[in-house]
Amino acid sequence: MNSRSTIRYILYVILLIFALSIVKIASVYQRTYSPNIFTPGGKTFFLYIKTDSQYQNVMDSINAHNLVKNEKSFEWVVRKKKYETRIHSGRYRVTNRMSNNAFVNMLRSGIQEPVNVVINNIRTPEDLAGKLSVQLEPDYNDILSLLNDKAFVSKYGFNPQTILGMFLPNTYEFWWNTPAEEIFDRMMRDYKKFWNYSRNSKARELNLDQNGIITLASILINETNKEDEYRRIAGVYMNRLKQGIRLQADPTIKYALGDYGRKRILNKDKLVSSPYNTYLHYGLPPGPIALPSLRAIDAVLDYERHDYLYFCAKEDFSGYHNFARTLNQHLKNARSYQKALNRRNILK
Description:
By secondary structure, the protein is mainly α. The protein has helices at residues 3-33, 55-64, 71-80, 100-109, 125-133, 140-147, 150-154, 180-194, 197-205, 210-223, 230-242, 250-257, 294-301, 327-343, and strands spanning 35-37, 45-49, 90-94, 98-99, 115-119, 170-174, 310-313, 321-324.
């Protein structure tokens, strides 16, 4: 073979190697960077990976929603990036037409999407455990067990009757896989922020602790949905507390009976044996009967100063109340309301 032929041969070999390299690079690029993740309906999808999941658990979830179009190329990227040994639990935002590279990088780095946890409309620990467990990973029974664990909640300065008050109604940003214990830690931090110097000073002036304020506010929100009446009704209760008069708050009877839809409290209902029965017991019940709004808490702290001792729902069913300074006036107002209930055949 002459020198010219040798050179030509070498060039052919180089070109062949180059061509093969291009094909190889194109194949690698295709497997790594081309769209391969397709979400249901092309919409944003959230993939949930539970704590202590293994790679097969992740793949089962991925396959259950048919997210991966070419599984071989996906698993090739998984092996190259050693994702099998770097599983992170969490809630992951998956967009349509993601590449294997983008998808695996997100999962192996644990770049999850937070959850906006809404806490509101809570009456009991069971309600709270249910609301948290449907928005976050921890199990309902695990959360409820902690809420009822005297030793655990005492670390935060609460007991099982008062712990509900630590979970102030609001929207909170959490990682989906936040452990149950850490949920309490987070809520305590926000609780302390809410109870700033100003609010604590006002509570001391009223001779009530934080739990007392929250408990009174929880009764308040169950008495009326009219926020412009909050401060006036709070004033009635403060007057009764100061004068040593039983609160006689109907919402506490409903709570004791576990019947929150009642429109009418009967005399026999007022005899129910419960520490929450404010017709039988003086002072505040042992803990909140619901989670009060932040506005209701502030309404108690800034209650309206007046000399009313009684109030009763107006007979026009507007949701507003008639206020009275004397028992005689209150009984007159109560009779008007009872007649209105009778006309509508509302017996309980």
